[in-house]
Design a protein that fits this description.
The complex is a heterodimer of chains A (114) and B (114).
Chain A (H helix, E strand, L loop, with lengths): L2 E5 L2 E4 L5 E8 L5 E7 L5 E9 L2 E4 L5 E7 L2 E6 L8 E8 L9 E2 L3 E5 L1
Parallel strand pairs in A: 2-11
Antiparallel strand pairs in A: 1-3, 3-8, 4-5, 4-9, 5-6, 7-8, 9-10, 9-11
Chain B lengths: L3 E4 L2 E5 L4 E7 L7 E6 L6 E6 L5 E4 L2 E6 L4 E6 L8 E11 L2 E6 L3 E6 L1
Parallel strand pairs in B: 2-11
Antiparallel strand pairs in B: 1-3, 3-8, 4-5, 4-9, 6-7, 7-8, 9-10, 9-11
Classes of the chains: A mainly beta (114), B mainly beta (114).
Chain lengths: 114, 114
């Protein structure tokens, strides 16, 4: 069966510090991968998605970036965090290729920028 | 603009009652409609999903009703239980060259009271 991991689970960082969040998927090959952000009490905002190694599409202009160095690894980064970057970050995967399938979410990382 | 409108924002239902959450979409190109359940501090979990060529899908106490002509769909939770208390998100997927972009509704906070 497929599993998705995210770490760290929680993170408190000062403004201006760098960020690196990691997501890995097990039990599947060539998945589509996604990064979402969820503000408190709000819906989910798609930040980045990737259909393959090194292929990243950005949905929202911001000071965040994403990379996919390996097939089942997705990383969210920032060089300098802003207060507005606080939120709940979720990684998700879906079966690669054409067709309509659902996305499966990881446990999330709670980021607080102070 | 691709949107999915969800209502109500919050819902309180007595134990044993029926919980109903409604969603409406604009883009007729959407081709898959999942519902997610999210508990506090956790990632959303896929609950049930439907394709637009089906008018109803039932899984246990959860039923999706889909009205393609009205561009509306709803989640019904029969015999609601306190353990169903969570935030529910409807979503719609637009498949584009193998990448499924999820558009989420804004969420409904459901509370089941004894």
């Amino acid at each position: 069966s497929q599993t998705i991991h995210q770490w760290p689970a929680t993170l408190v960082q000062p403004v201006g510090s760098p960020l690196s969040l990691e997501c890995t998927v097990e039990g599947t090959s060539n998945p589509n991968l996604y990064w979402y952000r969820q503000a408190a009490g709000r819906g989910l905002q798609l930040l980045f998605y990737s259909v393959g190694i090194g292929q990243i599409s950005s949905e929202v202009p911001q000071n965040l970036s994403a990379s996919r160095p390996q097939d089942r690894q997705f990383i969210l980064s920032s060089k300098k965090l802003l207060l507005s970057d606080s939120g709940f970050y979720l990684c998700a995967w879906s079966v690669g290729g054409t067709g309509s399938t659902s996305q499966y979410f990881g446990p999330g990382t709670r980021l607080t920028v102070t | 603009q691709q949107q999915v409108k969800q209502s109500p924002q919050s819902l309180i239902v007595q134990k044993g009652g029926i919980s109903i959450i409604n969603c409406a979409y604009e883009n007729t190109a959407f081709d898959y409609f999942p519902w997610y359940q999210q508990f506090p501090g956790k990632g959303p979990a896929l609950l049930i999903a439907i394709r637009p060529d089906v008018s109803e899908k039932k899984e246990g106490r959860f039923t999706i009703s889909f009205n393609k002509s009205a561009k509306q769909f709803s989640l019904h939770i029969m015999d609601s239980q306190p353990g169903d208390s969570a935030t529910y998100f409807c979503a719609a997927i637009l498949t584009n060259f193998g990448n499924e972009k999820l558009t989420f509704g804004t969420g409904t906070r459901l509370t089941i009271i004894p």
